[in-house]
Amino acid sequence: MQPIISVSGLSKTYATGFQALKRVDLEIRRGEIFALLGPNGAGKTTLISIICGIVNPGEGQVKVGGHDIVADYRAARALIGLVPQELTTDAFETVWATVSFSRGLFGKPANPAYIEQLLKDLSLWNKKDSKLLTLSGGMKRRVLIAKALSHEPQILFLDEPTAGVDVELRRDMWQLVRKLRAGGVTVILTTHYIEEAEEMADRIGVISKGEIVLVEDKAALMRKLGGKELTLQLQAPLAAIPPALARYPLALSADGTALTYRYDADGADNAIVGLLQDLDDAGIGFADLHTTQRSLEDIFVSLVADKP
Fold first, then answer.
1. How far is CA 17 from each of CA 12, 14, 21, 207, rounded to the nearest angstrom?
2. CA 26 → CA 62, 216, 228, 249, 256, distances in Å?
3. pLDDT value of residue 70
4. Among the four given CATH numbers 1.10.3470, 3.30.70, 3.40.1000, 1.10.10, the one describing domain 227-306
5. For residues 292 and 202, is the Cβ–Cβ distance under 8 A?
6. Has residue 298 got a pLDDT over 70?
7. pLDDT in tens, 221-278
8. Residue 139 pLDDT level (bands cut at 50, 70, 90)
9. What CA–CA distance (Å, rounded) separates 95 from 105?
10. Residue 115: what are its φ and ψ, rounded to 5°?
């Protein structure tokens, strides 16, 4: 299947000389939720802004739905809805007027029933006649989402959409994202809340210093780089790991009271059984044990830290 967004060899250097993107190659599949992760200044917003037609590209090519964003920018832009980080809204307009106007900007005919349902989905219906200047920050964020969806785009960009918003809005937003994905909309999000990417995304992309470090299916990434740890609280402290246990990747705590065994989830059962048997044979007893799994945040931090 042809990707709905195709980025090839994309670079961007600003007038200051700062190179925000360095030959980025990226394909985003139709109907997926794609999470783009990276530290501040990594190039996330620049990449999104170029795809959405807000920032001019340097070198390279970007296609949206098969349309070149430069040669056929109108067709490409019509497929996209963007929720920016900044709360930029027309303060004296009502919610209904500003969302309806955004729909008209894309040449879409009036559709009051669609706008009504959109506002209800975002818990904005009781605010439809309120002027934007009277709304809270969270409500203004909801209006930005409604504006981005007003023309029924095939692609929705959410740039740090839940930064500084309340728990209720975050919950409503992810319910809406799931509903959109079920309807075939492709969702691309950047977020600092890595647990949201871990919960929501189909694929994860990591960008650092203007370069794509990794793109992977979330499940495959967690299997490949996640790993697990088994921690054994010992009945008596050890001075060192006995030679009989040298074949296991074990780490002894500084006070000698705990052993940590790192392993991949696949095919680990037999190895753990063997480890426990060898511990028993060596006369090492343990009082308690528990397992933990490396999180997406741990993986992200290690990937960015490894980038020179």
1. 10, 5, 12, 20
2. 9, 11, 30, 36, 47
3. 93
4. 3.30.70
5. no
6. no
7. 766 655 677 888 999 999 899 888 888 888 899 899 998 887 765 555 567 888 888 8
8. confident
9. 16
10. -60, -40
CA 275 to chain centre: 37
**Per CATH, is 5-223 categorized as 3.40.50.300?**
yes
Rounded Cα gap, residues 34 and 200, in angstroms: 9
Characterize 184-202 residue by residue with b for buried, 16 or more Cβ atoms within 10 angstroms of its Cβ, and e for exposed. ebbbbbbbebbebbbebbe
Output b/e per residue, 249-274; b: 16+ Cβ within 10 A: ebebeeeebbbebebeeeebeebbee
pTM of structure: 0.74
> One-letter amino acid identity for 14?
Y
Would you list the domain boundaries of the chain?
Answer: 5-223, 227-306
* 8-state DSSP, 55: S
Report the C-alpha gap between 22 and 242 in whole angstroms.
49
Query: Residue 156 phi/psi, 5° resolution?
Result: -125, 125
pLDDT digits (tens, 9 = 90+) for 38-80: 877 889 889 999 999 999 999 999 999 999 999 999 999 999 9
β-sheet bridge partners, residue 252? 259
Query: CA-CA distances (angstroms) from residue 303 to 39, 218, 227?
Result: 11, 15, 15
Q: Which of 216, 185, 255 is nearest to 26 (CA)?
A: 216
- DSSP E strands in 67-136: the ranges are 67-68, 80-83
Write the pLDDT tens digit of every residue in 7-50: 999 999 999 999 999 999 999 999 999 999 887 788 988 999 99
